[in-house]
Write a structure and sequence with these properties.
Layout: H1 23-33, E1 35-39, H2 45-64, E2 75-78, H3 81-95, E3 103-106, H4 107-113, H5 125-138, H6 144-165, H7 172-187, H8 192-206, H9 213-226, E4 232-235, H10 240-243, H11 246-258, E5 261-266, H12 275-283, H13 297-307, E6 317-322, H14 325-341, E7 347-351, H15 354-366, E8 372-373, E9 377-378, H16 383-396, H17 401-409, H18 425-442, H19 449-468, H20 477-496, H21 504-517, H22 521-525, H23 528-544, H24 553-566, E10 568-569, E11 578-581, E12 593-597, H25 615-621, H26 626-643, E13 647-652, E14 654-655, E15 658-659, H27 664-677, E16 723-725, H28 726-734, H29 736-744, H30 759-776, H31 785-806, H32 809-818, H33 821-833, E17 836-850, E18 856-869, E19 891-898, H34 902-907, H35 914-923, E20 928-929, E21 935-936, E22 943-951, E23 958-961, H36 967-989, H37 1000-1003
Parallel strand pairs: 1-5, 2-3, 2-4, 4-5, 6-13, 7-11, 7-12, 8-11, 12-13, 16-18, 19-22
Antiparallel strand pairs: 9-10, 14-15, 17-18, 18-19, 20-21, 22-23
Helix pairs in contact: 1-11, 2-3, 5-6, 7-8, 9-11, 12-13, 12-27, 13-27, 14-15, 16-17, 16-24, 17-18, 18-19, 18-20, 19-20, 20-21, 21-23, 28-29, 30-31, 31-32, 35-36
Bound molecules: iron/sulfur cluster (SF4).
Iron/sulfur cluster (SF4) binds at residues 735, 737-738, 996, 998, 1002-1003, 1006, 1008-1009, 1012, 1014.
Length: 1017
Amino acid sequence: MTGPVSSAADSANAGALPAVATNTEKLATFAAAVATRALPPGDGFFDAVAQAMLARIAAVRDDCGGSDDDFSAWLVLAPSLPIASELRQSFVRLAGRPVLLPHFDVLRRWAEAEPVADLPAAMTDSERLALLYDALRQRNWFDEGARWTIAGELAELFDELTAAAVALPDDDAALAEQLARAYDTRLSAPLAFEARLVVELWRALSAIGRPDGAALQQLRLARLAATAARPMLVVLDAAPDEALSVAEREFLVRWAARQTVAVFYPQPRCHAATPVQAALDAAWPEVLAAHEATPPLIERARSLAATHPLSPLAERLALVSASGREAEAEAAVAQVFAWLGEGRRRIALISQDRLTARRVRALLERDEVLVADETGWKLSTSRAAACVDALLKTVAGGAYHRDLLDLVKSPYVVGGMASSPEMAASDARETAIFVLEAAVRAASAVRGLPRMRHALRQFAASSARMEQAGAATHAGPAAQAGAASLLDRVDAALTLLADRPAPLARWIERLEKALDALGARAALRSDAAGAAVLDLLALRHAELIEHRATFSFASWREWLSREFESGSFRDASVASPVVLTPLNAVALRHFDAALLLGGDARQLAPAAGGAFFNQSVRRELGLRTHDDARREMRRDLELLLVSVPRVVVVWQSEIDGEANLPAPEIDVLSALHQLAWADDLRRAPLARAVRSLSGDDVPSGKFSPPVAHRAAPSALAAAIPGRITVSGYATLLACPYRFFARSVLGLGAVDEVAETVDKSDYGALVHRVLERFHAQHASLESLSPEAAREALRRDTEQVFAPAIEENALALGWRLRWEKRLDAYLAWQGQREAEGWRWQQAETSVKRVFTLADGTSLEVAGRIDRVDRLVEGAADSDVGSGTQGSTRNEAGVSLLDYKTRTAKAIRDGLADDVQLPAYALLWAGREPSRRDDGAAELPGGDAHVLEAAYIALDDETVGAVAAVERDAEALADLARAHAQRLVHAFSALRAGAPLPAHGADSACRWCEMAGLCRREHV
Ligand code: SF4
């Protein structure tokens, strides 16, 4: 319980100090000075304790006189407030008349509240932790990432060592002497680096000259004992040598020297005061003296059955294994409802497995049974801490887009965003977030606020263009301004948290200002968890204000994570018959039933010891060992089983496909019970009653699950779009349902920010290179082969440069394309020799069709490249895609670049829609207006001679035509598509269904998979 104090004695002086009493001597002193009494634990324990206390009070009154009904001079101390409360109720009941009650409290709480003069200023736990971290850093011990953990372990170890070694001091100098002696004598053995580390850091802390919280508590107890002014009654949850520290025992001894003290505790299991204790002692016998052997389990079982022909546990304990977490939670909820149905009104949910406990709580709350939570939630699991974490992640990751979007979406951020007459503040905030996210995704802005701002500007420009074209957008000027203001707030917060090393308190100030910049502080204050986060920050700031050591952003962030991990908050407003609580808080308390969640070997296990020292060294030093922890856990289980009339232990029998065994204590108990009474206590999980399908609600013998059908919805005529693109038409033919989801419902996969450069990005870059190259060099005639290659290489370099700057992976794609330059130029030369000349790139074409019901449908497309056949090209010159009879006529070739192999393109040609659709749109394209107002057809009046893909991913570049060397056949194909298109959309407007019948190749990458129930049919 103690740490360093001022004027620590030099180890050289340790030998001059008086000898310290051994633990055995101290126990003997305690037994001689303090009246103790063990009482059988179980249902009547508190009544028995209250009765014994009243008797004690009466005896003292008989000796010293006093009023019959005024016990207010007495102090009653209990191990916890719930136990104090239950004891108080027994006291009132057994007093049988109105009395002035004693003061009921818990030792530590009472001691801290009592006024004590002249206590030295204490070193807080947070200050001690920071000092330990700093001491480790100065010595360059351990990696930076491990230092907070090591410092935390050291702090715990100091407390343990002190509790084990230090008796109650008379003053702080005496405490310093005791500590110095304890540390030197206990750690002077050659424990190598660990011992040196502990002693050296303890000395470093000693030099500060202030006791820590635990040391201060020892001094406080000593001062209080020196002025003991009232009689004291104490109830413990274990025998005094287990339940009290050395200093606490000595405190009671000193108090007893001046005042009456009586201690009451539950009879240890080995005394077998009740049949349940006898059974538990047979299952978990105390370790006997070294010379005595423990009888085998079967003998213990036989002997137990002989003494108790009827099992004391059969109606008390059930062991239930479930097949997984959800089954465990369902079984738990079913059990709780069964108990509530039986009229049990105090039910403990023991949360050994916190994940299952959360699930059980959620299921109960879904069924409107609230749970009173005594365990509380870790602050780190709260949305408030997640908001702070998102901010720190955004700083650490240089405004990585996912972190930034998580941050702005936090409900605490940007509270108070300006509203307008047309829009509430919350709507303004949502719209601003939407615009920011859409802009970031559209521009694939991976990281960095300048990049995000650029993305917003691009998004604004594109929205303006859409608006000019008469299209609706979500991004009006107000929404764009809101998104920009969001970025401004994030920018301000990030600037405040820029990585300049600072003391911890200064970092907290920066964080608070950053939260202000985000508009989050007021919102955090209005929520229980948020207020707990702010209060924790304020407390730590006050505690650490004098601590001047500086910390990097990374160190401070790790410190803060630890604070959130160890901090908790509770919603104390819920009062419920179902109480979620840890195992060690149930001991002795009255519950009608208890459900232990996580009774397996992983969850129901003794707490691990600290990282320092192995078990034998810990035993040598008088520290708590693994055996001690197991003994305490068994005692907690024992007190649960003797106090609560109905206990169910549940666990998962399987985790990740592997068997998950029950805890050894549970397993042994089950085996013992089987041997003694032919019942292993295992029970099947209860099934939850499904109210809507029970009894008369279910048609007899005719209930069967509905057959799943693949989706095939129809759409109202008004919902069928009047304008589609060529790719929308292709989607309709590949899978009508996908078209329905995308174009009728307006669903679509949200653009993902491209964090890598993939094949489609490569394709887009190559398109841009070729567009740029041919815009300057429609023909290669005027260029030497070297000049042509250099020009294409230069364009490649310039187009790829921004992508490489954004992501180095783009360099690999550029190198891949650079290997194709010669092949491409060779193909282009060949094509020019055949009479083709590049005419234009990215040509928009559209055509309007009239449907059966008289409405119209506009189909639009964009053609990568259009080539024109020059007049007079010789028949023999004309290569792929031209028809001999029309070779000298003015005609065009519609081309689409594909960064795929010719074979892959050919394999998909049978289902291809794109090339015939381009031919169809070209033939019926609408004229556009020139500057002088005259009408002009894009590409002039030339008709289509061919439509082809250019395969760019082979060693040689080549064209793959939709129809080889037959312009008429291509025109026929285009006309067939026109009929199909008109027929399909006329049918859709008349209510034809849109079934989900995509081929595997379409389904593989479909974003609507799941929605169409394809997997469930
Ligand atoms: S997964 Fe297949 S069947 Fe379902 S919508 Fe997509 S393409 Fe159609």
